[in-house]
Amino acid sequence: MQIGEKIYRELKRIHKIDLKSFIAPNIRNKNLFEFIIGVLLSQNTSDRNAIRAYNNLLKSLGSITPQKILSKSPDEIALLIKPAGMHFQRAKRILELARIFSDEEFVSELINKIKSLPVEESRKLLTKLPGVGEKTADVALLMYFDKPAFPIDTHIRRITLRLGVVESPSYEKISQWWMKELDKKHYLEAHLLLITHGRTVCKAKNPECRKCPIKQYCKYYASGNKK
Ligand code: SF4
Description:
Blueprint: H1 3-14, H2 32-41, H3 47-61, H4 66-70, H5 74-80, H6 87-101, H7 104-116, H8 119-127, H9 134-144, H10 154-163, H11 171-181, H12 187-200, H13 219-222
The structure holds iron/sulfur cluster.
């Protein structure tokens, strides 16, 4: 069995995924615009802050649609999404996205293309949207379009580098390693388990290596960091 699959099994054995603590899996049944806004709010901040910002928007607008977003000024949007941080910059991106998504024909064409094209091509289409980087695109591909992509967040990057299975902090290299090492049907669950592991055990400061179920695969642990 590949190391990635072994790690997945060990993490599944000790962690219970608390879906409520993640924004993206909770908005997968929304339309693509709303989904991308939710994921954009989670960039460079915790899911908890993103959920607060998202709920503020939802409460104020009633529903998150391009038209309702465009009825607000940049400052009004910024105020609502303040809990996510970088709110003025994010508000600008959200308004740009709302302008693009108000063209229904464009959106339905985009969705059809993403559904029919291979992952790499679909990712290129998504990353052309304002504020959509490789991680947001991969979250959309994996969670919204059920495509085989593996998004890398700060927790997954840290764990992977500590494991020592990838030397470069490059997003692409880390994502490719996990995709190669995992069965496609485990991508989503493994992604959420790794984040859970990073939040609770393999924390940025003082990782709890002694109780870590994947320490036998970890170079950081083997090198003597055995707290
Ligand atoms: S052994 Fe320590 S550093 Fe390695 S994955 Fe586990 S908690 Fe992280």
